[in-house]
Amino acid sequence: MTNPPRHPPGPGAKLRIGVVFGGRSGEHEVSLASAASVLTAIDRTRYEVVPMGIARDGQWLVGGDPLRALADAAGVRLALPARASASDSSARSAHRDPGLARVPTAGGLPASTAAGLDVVFPVLHGPYGEDGTLQGLLELADVPYVGAGVLASAVGMDKATMKAVFRAHGLPVVPHLVVRAHEWTEDAPAIARRVASELGYPCFVKPANLGSSVGISKVDGPSSLPAGAREAFRHDRKMLVERAVSGREIEVSVLGNDEPLASLPGEITFDADWYDYSTKYLEGQSRLTIPAPVSIEITRRLQTLAIAAFRAIDCSGMARVDFFVERGTDRVLVNEINTIPGFTATSAYAKMWAATGLAYTDLVDRLIELALERHRSKGAAG
Fold this sequence. Notes:
Layout lengths: L14 E8 L5 H14 L5 E8 L5 E3 L3 H9 L13 H6 L7 E3 L7 H4 L4 E4 L10 H9 L8 H8 L1 H10 L7 E5 H19 L3 E5 L9 E3 L5 H9 L4 E6 L3 E10 L4 E2 L3 E5 L6 H5 L4 E4 L6 H17 L4 E10 L5 E7 L9 H9 L3 H22 L1
Parallel strand pairs: 1-2, 1-5
Antiparallel strand pairs: 2-3, 3-4, 6-9, 7-8, 7-9, 10-11, 10-12, 10-14, 12-13, 14-15
């Protein structure tokens, strides 16, 4: 039995938006920073906001101020928005605080809070949020949600499958090998020989299902490969071994459903040896230049490939596509697609759209509109 069709709220009525953040992955803190920006920027005259946290143990935090509770628990210092209760208008009009409640996970959304949500805006990064897990839960609940669907989320999270799909669509990718934990255990020397002959050194070893450069190692020679493999397999049962590319790191933001648009590209520069976790997230360690200082031809190539990558995995809503532009040849290689990119107002995704002419608050509005559009189109197709 399906839920009754949703109708646009009447004049003056607010959409009820559930903003979900936190999660069980190693990117918990990044999610909290993204949520703080969304909750600060979202237009309260248009939306009734329902903050919904997920703790590291998988329990839902609803009511009260779950963002502050999760930030305090993680020891994260955030520019937190003004307190937003589980139901802005009703809680404040009654002059009471419903208090924070922990709801044990039971394979579903917290019924008391999720009832009547018009849209869910997930800002969870990495496994259990960006990988199709939460998206499948929302599909079962028949609730519209921002961003990629189950398939695109899962493909975008699994770098091995993502690159296979990209290659099937004729997109240029970095040469790589996919190695499973049991294969490494059974014959590590044979895999090391393949790495040496097919990729060479230096190379990068990374878990297939993770983000934010967590678990990635730069391997300069055969003696360092076992340590890199141990670190990758600590996070996942599959690892990628990729040839190191001497190139510029450039990103493009994509927005839309059936007719996606690409932003101006941005170039990431840094002084570190490579773009690791601390370089990404510690203030002052990296710089983003928008528009990227490349030719018009390369800009168009980047935008064309970004949209092609978006469509290749059947993405919707938003994504950030990351590229290498090889030094000396200007050949463009697709590195990866992120279906829930970092989403603070100062994150690359939002800054590239701001430089293209779409401000952060308007970007949030547009993503909510796209979520409703996608949900309506599924109903029409059925």
